[in-house]
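ARCHIVE CARD
Drawer: 12
Card no.: 0347
Subject: one protein chain, sequence and derived structure
Cross-reference: see card 0346
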Amino acid sequence: MSTAAALSKLEEAIKARFPDLQPHFHSGISEAEFMRLEGQLSPYRLPRECRDLYEWHNGAREPLELIPGYSFLSLAEAIDEYRMQLKIFGGTEGFNPLWFPLFSFQGDIYAVVLSSEGTNRSPVYLSFNQDTEIRLMYSDFDTLLAVSTRCFESNAYFLDDGYLAEDEEKVERIKSEFGEAAPVEHVDGESSFSKFFTQSWPESWKSAIGRTDEDYVAKGADNTVAEYKSDPKRSRLHVAITGVLGTSSHTILDIRDETGQMSVLCLNTAVGAREIQISRHYEMEVEPSREELSPHESCEGVVRHVLLRE
């Protein structure tokens, strides 16, 4: 079944069960308007199935939702949500530029995957705002539509005090009918990915944040903390993290090895910056503090690259 046909079937199920909700759909957008808005995501493009979605209906007003609890965003709203997620969590880790939100609730999103070349289909992931993982929920968007249709038809989705709700047991049984019982297994054998420890990310995700396999290869320390402190110059150190003090833009790290300890400034834009946890060992590239970082004079260096060692 095509995505357009699956959307039509879903609308029929909603209209049959909840005729008062069906008028809450927004009108669909034209192909030209879709292309104009999609251009704001350059150099990335949405999967073809998303064009079908927004040409069908460009979002919906509450309480109509395709997944209970998650607003069906218009394409313009989805782009705004995407930009907000990038602004808050973006960088080298935390939120990947390829994750595009279709449905949202207070920062929790169901997302498809963008690509530079354009694809027909995408897996659907669920990212909770405060969670450290992004979870694969559906192998493709059409399966999400089929599950949602079946949930409307079977009363797994119902109205509770005027809002759409779900019977979780019924929903899981329906997902299992489509081979989508949680957790879904990723094509690479993964059902979820850490948002911050990026080594297991698919190659396209790594590329989107400027990382390559070379970034995860230990190169070996060329200096100790004591040697760096006596002669500050760009160095690779093997250290443990003993203290972390973070802000929205940077983190102050207390690091140590067997020769001594010091404090360094780690900007959130540094490669691997968001992968830092206390009580782990890292290989990191450190260079002397620059003049523009004078508010952090107590720091004896700036971190450029972080590699998890153990």
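Annotation on reverse: Residues 225-308 form a domain with the OB fold (Dihydrolipoamide Acetyltransferase, E2P) fold (CATH 2.40.50.140). The chain is about 25% helix and 25% strand.
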